[in-house]
């Protein structure tokens, strides 16, 4: 007799929320994990467990607690979790599926270009530029030697940490943001360059559309490479069909 599915859902994206809602509606047992506190107001039907893993062995031990399959719907730039989860699933013999929305194409915006990382983007910033960045707190060391006037870093959770450089200004906001909201913000801050990670999808592209409509340059940071052998699925229904076939 085939065991009932007990899915480990690695969360942190809107796709994770949609999958969780679908699993709930189909009475499929799952447990959601997050590697960091959630962003924005969109909630999961089940409160995710916050899990921080110091090493791959710890993650594998936690994943060995009765799960029958793993759906990785975490942040597309959280490659460490993806690498450890896919390796642990393989070691435990658990079916593993990675879902990720398609990349944006820089050609969709006339003043956009793609670069491999934040350090490369930093080298392209013109002297005196007013830069709005959504590359995350951990990217700040890569802006050493910044030549612009100001680096305005968006943060989606309020905090009182002090940036490591005097040119950094923190801009707090709670997503999602409309194109009109982004336009108003960029105008108020006198932004002339946007640097953002290539997240893909509709909810996050409003900042690119706003910047493009205002004639601002855009630099897209490429996603890090996936572990060898991991092919992402882009369609949520296909993932649910995959679960049904387990």
Describe what you observe in this structure.
The protein is of the alpha/beta class and 246 residues long. The protein has 2 domains: 116 residues, Rossmann fold, CATH 3.40.50.720; 116 residues, NAD(P)-binding Rossmann-like Domain (Rossmann fold, 3-Layer(aba) Sandwich). It has 7 helices and 11 strands. The strands form 2 sheets. The protein has a 6-stranded parallel beta sheet with strand order 6-11-10-7-8-9. Strands 3-2-1-4-5 form a 5-stranded parallel beta sheet, sandwiched between helices. The longest helix is centred in the middle third of the chain and has 14 residues. The chain starts with 5 loop residues before the first strand and ends with a helix.
CATH A-level architecture of the largest domain: 3-Layer(aba) Sandwich
Residues in helix, %: 25-40%
Count helical runs: 7
Beta content: 15-25%
Oligomeric state as shown = single chain
**So, the CATH homologous superfamily of the largest domain?**
NAD(P)-binding Rossmann-like Domain
Return the structural class: alpha/beta
- Uncertain segments are none
Q: Key features?
A:
five-stranded parallel sheet; 2 domains; Rossmann fold; 20% strand; six-stranded parallel sheet; 246 residues; 7 helices; 28% helix; alpha/beta; single chain
